[in-house]
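ARCHIVE RECORD
Type: protein–small molecule complex
Small molecule: zinc ion
Source of inputs: curated submission
Record status: active
Notes field left blank by submitter.
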Amino acid sequence: MTRILFSGGMVFDGTGAAPSSADVLVDEGLIMEVGSGLDADEVVDCAGTTVLPGLIDSHVHVLFSGVNLLRMMQTPFSYPFYEAVHNLRTTLDTGITNVRDASGADLGVAQALRDGLIAGPRVQISISMVSQTGGHGDGWQPCGSVMPLLTSHPGRPSTIVDGPDSMRRVVRELVRAGADVIKVATSGGVLSPRDDPRHGHFRDAEIAVLVEEATAAGLFVMAHAQATDGIKVAIRNGVRSIEHGIYLDDQAIDMMLAAGTWLVPTLSAPRAVISMADAGVPMPAAVITKARMVLEEHDDSVGRAIAAGVKIAMGTDSGVGPHGDNLSELGLMADLGMTAAKAWQASTASAAELLGIKEEFGTLEPGKRADVVILEGSASDLVDLRGRVRAVYQDGILVAGAASPAQEPPAVPMWAH
Ligand SMILES: [Zn+2]
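STRUCTURE (tokenized, with ligand):
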């Protein structure tokens, strides 16, 4: 394999050090050295750019392409799997080389990526979100029919459960189906028409069993947790990350700090629902009302969490909103008081730590796998990030964009369009 030198850029290495002018040497798909006076077979001129570690989105839904219920009802069962191929490619093009899928993707999607059958970020799958009756994942509609966002199938078990015993069984079913992480809804949400984001779901005994079973299988737990009570039940029982975290009170923030619980804000999510509603996408009135209701409280909670020093990893809920806009989340976090450097940290080293992959990803340090993003301009400028991603590498291989502006992009197989 060719030795590649990313030369003359500002290197943001993800370690917390300030960006500095340096070269990055890659060999055999690994970072060999970051420094100066290095040489290689192939030199990529990075003047005027920032060289970043591959970015990580901790909350996506690659099988969702918007949440138009009417469209979903008219979409053939297997069609979203083909859409996922496109969504994964779009996500990779924006510099995201690892994602955590927060429900939808099953083992077939993960295996197709792992075998190189399709291009995209590496994925951790949660398959299906564990939810109580009437909870965020329950597709029961007021008309009496059941229309979940995700139909269960042999590779994606139904995960609506009540009580510790069924909880234990369903986690084991998810482990059997290939889950890399267990996702649970400990509160209502925005997209589910019949629940309330301010209500906590599941009781301590149920979440304790869920975490116990996940831990026994070596898996972390992520909780869709919007209500204050739902956030606290998750933290108390050892859930690793709070997703959304809309109604964080001071006690919840203190509990997160004490337990080392992560927050994945997904500030993009309610905004995506509101902009879809504004664009005329048909959705239940309750959903639109809830999206508008939570927006301000959500921003306020996340702003306070940032100020208090809660551990934060970047996540967008892409799939609810469009794929490929993932990097707008950095600007949204910055608007709530996060420095640009911390926003990049949340999208690299911190997210790698949350996902348990920090030994291999998240920083540009010798020995790490060579996921590299070349961004035009300075990392302190968070405007139009998507349009500034010049090239993306996974394991030292160019997978999106072009090494230099003058070069043609790599030939992309037909399936990737
Ligand atoms: Zn989500």
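CURATOR ANNOTATION: Residues 4-54+362-416 form a domain with the Urease, subunit C; domain 1 fold (CATH 2.30.40.10).
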